[in-house]
Amino acid sequence: MLSSFRPATRLLARQGQAQSVVRAAYASTWSNVPQGPPDAILGITEAYKADSFSEKINLGVGAYRDDKGKPYVLPSVRTAEEKVISSQMDKEYAGITGVPAFTKAAAVLAYGADSAVIKEDRVAITQSISGTGALRIGGAFLERFYPHGKSIYIPTPSWANHKAVFSDSGLEVKQYKYYNKDTIGLDFDGMVADLKAAPNKSIILLHACAHNPTGIDPTPEQWQQISQVVKEKEHYPFFDMAYQGFASGDTDRDAYPVRLFIEQGHGLILSQSFAKNMGLYGERVGAFSIACESTEEKKRLDSQIKILVRPLYSNPPVHGARIASTILNDPALNKQWLGEVKGMADRIIEMRALLKKNLEELGSKQNWDHITNQIGMFAYTGLKAEQMDKLAKEHSVYATKDGRISVAGITSGNVKRLAESIFKITG
Fold it and tell me: I need a surface site. Which of 94, 225, 245, 299 has the fewest CB within 10 A?
């Protein structure tokens, strides 16, 4: 009995050793993969969750919150979704470029119904996986077809994902001046100088409205000068419009730079997102478009956009696009949505004013005009990294180290405590 047991034991041991060798060989395939850095926003959220203080404040999240600090689903979105569900549509694939009723309406929303590119059917457009997906399609298209170099200039600073998206698309990311830390405002002279210094026919990324992360936008007059410089240098503009309507509460006003550039004869690329202005964050609804010279050019570009999209994700999801399409194409729902967008924008504007008012009433000697001069979801406070650390550790106020705060996280219930916390670390 014992002798028969020993060979079996040895056999099992040998099998175990062999399996260990196999596992070791397999694991070594990925032994050269380094640990990536943690996501900055995720780290803020984790620290916030771990804080047991009942009056803690999270100003890191890049999503709209109501005045109770809760996620907000627009009533127009609820109604549109009910319409979509009750219509009992099938779940078949959309075409490669998405839901046609959505893309057509998205183009009109961005360029304007009276725009020449709309009237003359010169917009090559595809539904995308929100704004990020639109940027990625744009990066891939430029890398493959742009004939004047593979560099793209983005503002300093810009949305953190811009560099990653364009780098992974095969483009070389360069920067132009944008933010003046001394004035906590736009470095317009530096921006213009850098655009003039860039090689002719460079690709220039521009935030259409509610610049992320600074909340600082050029004035209409400055946009006209930027357009002139871009035209003189024959640069190619790439607009990222993630906040149309959400910035000022007026979709037409927020689209001004895009429409100005079209009126002045620029060709351009546009990325649109419906995450913020419709609250469709998880539905991932966006659009990528190119303003073309002719319908013949549009036809050629459409064909290549499809070829790019097909191996990326094949077809976009239909549910969110159907919701957005219903809102954009139903006159009553569209009017309701525009009112709700204005309501969200107005709340953000009100929170900016309240924060500034509370700081001034506390006797702060600093000038906080930049808080109300900026626009959109984010505000650049001008606070330094060590001050942001103090806010978190001593006052349970969480935001990014660069001093950016999400104004959507401010409520009428916490704005006073937020102002007091800022006052204590700044005087």
Answer: 299
pLDDT at 2: 47
Tell me, what CATH number does 129's domain have?
3.40.640.10
| φ/ψ (deg, to 5) at 363 | 95, 20
Q: What's the chain's Rg over C-alpha atoms?
A: 25
Contacts of 51 (CB under 8 A, 6+ apart): 396, 398
Tokens of 265: 């004869």
Residue 159 and residue 135 in one domain: yes
Give the side-chain half-sphere CA count within 13 A for 387: 15
Q: Annotated catalytic sites, by residue? A: 159, 240, 276
Residue with tokens 């949305």: 159
φ, ψ dihedrals at 425, nearest 5°: -95, -10
By CB atoms closer than 10 A (0-12, 13-18, 19+), residue 213 is buried
Last residue of a domain, one of 329, 356, 373: 329
- Whether 355 and 319 map to the same domain: the answer is no
208 DSSP 8-state letter: -
Q: Which two tokens stand for residue 91?
A: 């779940």
Q: Tell me, what's the pLDDT at 230? A: 98
Take residue 205 and report the two structure tokens written for it. 């990324």
**Residue closest to 239 by CA, chosen among 253, 263, 255:** 255
Which helix (H) or strand (E) segment holds residue 252: the answer is helix 251-254
Residues of the chain whose pLDDT is less than 70? Answer: 1-27
